[in-house]
Amino acid sequence: MPGISFGREMGGDAKRFASRVDDALLGQDVYGPVGLFEASAAEQGPRGCGSVECTGGWTRPWRSKKRPIFEGHWGCSGRCVLAMVRAAMRRETGDRRAVTETAGSHRHRVPLGLVMLAQGWITHPQLKAALQAQRQSGSGRIGDWLVSECGLEAEQVTRGLSVQWSCPVLSTEGFSAQAMALVMPQRFVQEFGMVPLRVAGGRLLYLGCDDRLNASVAYAVEQMTGLKVESGLVDGVQLTAAKANLLNADAVQTNLEAVADEDSLAARMTAILEHRQPLAARLVRLHQYYWLRLWLESGTRGLAGSLPRSTEDMQDCLFTVGSAA
Predict the structure, then answer these.
(1) What span, in angstroms and rounded, lies between the C-alpha atoms of 246 and 222?
(2) Pairwise CA distance, residues 294 & 315, whole Å
(3) Global pTM?
(4) Is the distance from CB of 223 to CB of 283 less than 8 angstroms?
């Protein structure tokens, strides 16, 4: 079949197809697990390739018609896969900026001590004693000093933090370390302090922390899993135990690499996609990390969103760029 030109003489169907692919690559389409795994050549239009820069035809004799698949689209050549990766990187740079700005608008919160005082959970003398102990020590959180100096229960401090952050208090009931170890790389759990707790109804993923929320982590996990993420506070003792169990469980194989610049990053991710030939792949940025997850064979997706069924035939690749390395 001859190649189809998408030049200045595009017909109506070709124009609509090109516009739809461009929107998808720039992140305008709603991402979900079905789109990640089940995009077909028919859905992508007459050309099959997901790159808007493609100049090839239906296929090439040395290429598989099915792989690699990146974010629901097949790349017919290394050049096309590279174009798709670069478009995803541009999208993630914009998404990260938007999330950072949103999180930054909520940084100025009423201090925890004043929140608890207003709720009637502590008295003025108790707050004064805790603040004095904190100043003399030069370290420590006010909640910890309220517990150690004023005899408050840790659960009371957690309730105060939930009011301060306007979020629910969660428990570790129903937590499965092995299942939750598949949600995100263990490095993120260690570095950002957010622990996946459980999936409810096959659609809602709960993330827990002990003292403050991280909107960027919640957003990244939501984009990668296709699940709605709800963040909340967990009692410190419970969360510490859950975190330890999760870090001892089998996780998806993770490779961490540092690259010089974004051009090198795009080339490296393209090389991995070309070599591993995944059935599905997705890119998300979280703070200084670019997180590329690969589903290498069929049957890797579990019952909830795009969470893996097991560690088998899965791979996570984490990248840092330049000074972020």
Answers:
(1) 19
(2) 5
(3) 0.74
(4) no
